[in-house]
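A favour, since you know our structure tokens better than I do. Go ahead and set the record down below.
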Amino acid sequence: VNNSTYMTDGSGQVTITTLNTSARTVSGTFQGTVTGTFGTVGTFTLANGEFMDIPYSVQ
């Protein structure tokens, strides 16, 4: 399990990268709606498009 915090850019996009190539799910508490698919690199769109910290757990 990798745990980290990422911040969106102005467009509300965040890229999550992990060395765990088998990781396919992301869970955590988000300040907004997160959509997207996750492989080794996942890009997620947050509904409000603001800067925010995203604590997450890659499983």
